[in-house]
Queue: 2 jobs
Job 1
Amino acid sequence: MNYLRSLLTGFIILLSVHGFSQPLIYVNHIAYDTKGPKRAVIRLDQVATAAIKFSLINLNTQKADFSGNLKNSGSISEWFPDKYYYTADFSTFTKTGNYKVRINNSGQSYDSEEFKIGKDALANATLGSIIHYYYKQRANTPEELAGDEKMLLYGSNKTVDIRGGWADASGDISKYFSHLAYANFMSPQQIPMVAWAMANAYESIPAKLNELGIKDSLANEGLWGADYMMRSLSTENYFYMTVFSYFKPDITARRIVGLDANSVTTDRYQCAFREGGGMGIAALARISGWKKNGTFTSAQYLDAAKRAYAHLTVNNLKYADDGKENIMDDYCALMAATELWIATDSNYYGNEARKRASNLVKRMSPHGYFIADDKDRPFWHAADAGLPVIALSRYLSKEKEPSQRSAALSVIKKVLDYNLSITTKVNNPFGYARQTFKHDGKIKEGFFIPHENETGWWWQGENARLASLATAAIVGGRLVYPSDKGWGVKPELARFAEQQLSWVLGENPYNVCFMYGFGKNNVPYMKALFGHGSQKGGISNGVTGKKENGDGSGIDYKIEDEGNEWRWTEQWIPHAGWFLQALTAITEAPSKQHDVKTMK
């Protein structure tokens, strides 16, 4: 059955990008928020010689509730040079209902997939499933609990109790604070970031969570993450980085390890700030403020965060693989110091946060992107590209000193301006967020991350990156480009955010909804050990640059690739974690206070 489904999905994908004479309409398959931007992308095989109208068809009445003209958006020479794209904008339409977009071309009618329009429609449809996805990702089967209770440290006879946490992906039941640490510039934030995202949602949108009847479920999931981080904290006060399964069904094969390229295991399992340590501290400190107890108490969460922070201020360089700090240490340590500052109101943590915020300010280039190292490497990231802005924004929720605020706000503004500028610099009808990177010794710009990078092998779809940038556009935008309309930011930023989320949900050239169990053309089911695997609400990696292109140029999406299809089809916990943050941002009521005067 899975094989037949894969063949059918592959056939649909082929039809959507090759040799198709009829127009194709790409939309968000799930829902559009009444307050937000709403667009569809239409692909034609020839340039339209006359105006083409589109209509918004109400599925209940089968009548058009809205109509307009398509706008020519040009071609994307790097992807499909012989195809021509148009956009249908219905952002001004706010009537609640179920709809599809219809166009008439050469005497024929063509329809999009169906979707909903409504207040908080996307959050209403998906929040519960995202929380349930993490519940199903819990490493809580009898086999996992038994094996993890006495986990061996790599190269040692010592065992520790490291039960709990979430399996990392639909094809990998290992547990990570972070991986790719050896590459120094590419470590994603995994379990700790997910826990922090849950804490952020719990505190930011309580009314919505209560309305949906999922607030307690979210709290329980956040506490599950906090308890795992407590068990991951060593007696020396560093976090263990990885519980690695070696992809074996034998539970006794699991070890606490550090990882080098191609899953080579080591005893360098201590987390630096950038390797999950900073976000682990941040999540524990923030959850401690709930005054709720899991297996451990809220007081123990806060005490652990303090001890871990004190340890890393002394030992971070020892744990960083190249012995140097970079931008990721700055934004992860900023999150840690900020959450401890908020939790304790201690001037010590306030000063620590200011140091890290100042470091980020100094890393801003004249172009608007951050410099990741102490030379000229641009900051780019396949999962956490929006995290520097989120860290600075969270810091500004506590910081009151005008000069400190002004510096941080100026950087947020420059980053958001850069994101808009580079994304609109070329024909880009889907609005996919572009980026600056260094490849083969040269500074380049492109849609996707370079496949030839510091890891030596790792690249994959970037749906977490897109959701992180959408989150940054809303959260940071409310500070520097506030609006009393829509999502509380200027229209350009709202459109940017919507385009990233809609790409994940089907408005992409492959017409694939990457959130499993929603929309149409989901990726094939992926099975993992101990009964884990693809889950409703989980999000797969997504689209990449062309497989053969080292600089990440071109475009690719494969559901079969001799075992490497995981680059596109595997669910991964950071994707849903960042999508949760984006939903939280667009659902949260914008603050009436902003900082335009401070910036001036």
Job 2
Amino acid sequence: MLSQTLIPETTMRLAKFTSVLLALAGALGAARFSPEHAGRIVRLADPQISPDGKSIAVVVSRANFEEDRYDADLALIDITTYAQRVLTHDRRDVSQPRWSPDGALLAYLAKVDGKAQIFVLPMSGGDSWQLTKSPTPVQQFAWRPGGRNEIAYVALDDRAKVTGEERHNKSFEVQDMHFLLQEAPSSSHVWLIAADAKSAARRLTSGEWSLPASLPPGPPASPLSWSPDGRQIALVKNSTPYTGDSDKSSVHLLDVETGDLRALTGRAALETQPLFSPDGVHIAHWYPREGETKNVNEIYVGRAAGGESTSVTRRLDRNAQRAIWMPDGKSLLVSANDGTTTGLWLQPLDGNPRRIDLGNLVITAAFWLDASLGPKGEIAFTATEPQRPAELYNMSSQDATPQRLTDFNAETAALELGRSETIEWENEGFHADGVVTYPPDFVPAKKYPLVLYVHGGPRSASKQAFSRLAQLMAAQGWIVFEPNYRGSDNLGNDFQAAIWHDAGAGPGRDVMAGVKQLEKRGFIDSDRMAVSGWSYGGYMTTWLLGNYPERWKAAVAGAAVTNWLDQYNLADGNVRAGERFGGSPWTDVKRIQSYREQSPMNYAARIKAPTLILSDTGDYRVPITQSFQLYHALRDNGVVTQFIAYPVSGHSPIDPVYSRDVDRRWVAWLAKYLSPQQTAGGAAR
């Protein structure tokens, strides 16, 4: 296992602070992790290596509980000395730092009157200037190569102003979109603007089709990719702006001067994330294996001139989540979940992938790899260790030892945290794995409550990384188990695809086989077990509650999928939910029965465990209607339950106050029922 290079004390002010914390911890006894500690974790994201390879710009965010927001700034980290410089001041919601090709300017997004706009910062000195004044938020942007100092950006079309009596008419046509829609969605299109802000932006695309837009949480909308000569932009063309139609996507090339669009491969669906090679000859893009949505995502490469593209990651057999061209254009840096970590490989255009050794680091990859490459193949990334939240790291080459450049989260690392390990087991011909986090004072001879913390997705994976909620629960004296069930994307195509037509039963048996494996070790109190999760983790929670009702002492179901019919009709994914069942529930009697049989609501009357239900009122990903159904089913059957709603938009609370409230309620609810003196019936209703 690699050890990360330590930060020189002479160049890191925070190293002294760390020493003080450790000294205090030794003298007073280290504190255990709490929601208050969680609120002080510093978040790092989107590291971008400068064109000269000497420094890294990164977004640094801290919780501001008084204003209930995260305050983000850009920091510049010197790779050699580790010196830090804050680049932005008093800008709201800073994101997406991007260097100009010559490194003289750094552009980024920040909100003005609630709308993201592009700002440009001169690296020679001086303040940023606001480049765009788009009437709608800027979604993404990319610098034009070739020394022209121009930026292409994507924004929603502004709505036409209506006057007279019709200004009161807000009716619109509903198509394949989530049920919270208040108006027909606008298309996203491309604009071009000079970085000196001396001329107005020029529209490059238009029409009823749209570039993809991301509803958080989700992967970034497919970034624009310029050809090296600055004449073309590779982009993704969606047939409509409706989120239920987002699978109707294909890679196109835009001629910047003429506005002509041409398809790259001729496929009509499921293509995304195009990226020009450094020499402009090839384009890499995402596409599922054999065009089947149940299969792993692969990286396809074709000639930019057009024609067929073919998979270069078939031998990898993992659900690729990002690809970045190496400077020589002969290979790609590819990432994917792999076991209980984030794998990183050097993938040649023709040949076997070579795994890059990261030791115990787990690169941040919630939806794609949080990394960038330097001019000589240097790799900058954010990553966690099992007992340290994310920091910034750099590798001078793919064979170098990672160097940690920051110490923002020294306070958390100095706490008394739980140890974690990976466990593996076999079930029904599948090899499965998961992560176990132990209480800080774990003694194998004792018996401990077990809490399942099931990941969402389901295309995701539990990893042996720093887990905020797992550490919060371990601090209570519980063993926390995060299983990877079939449908997870960390163990190959067959494991991932096995969830098709088997949303809950097979995955549920995988989870329970993992529980049985833990019980054999002798330190699990089988009479004090709880299950919890968010999103698909909420689905698995409610499935396990109804199908293994005698096993659970308590549960927390966050944003739980409980009814597949609601997912099909009301969620932002909408009709795409039908893919896993073979089509629409409304065209086949047997198929609608399958939807119902695989919905936890079908088994809700069996649930016995006291259950806390959590959901956002404005959740477009998993509509709150499903939480209402679960709540009434439990109440009507006399099960102890509480339903807490957060009056915000999105799939989960992202502000610090509500996020902390979720943590507190999650832990407090389970604590009621996992204490040794609690009777089997739970607290009185």
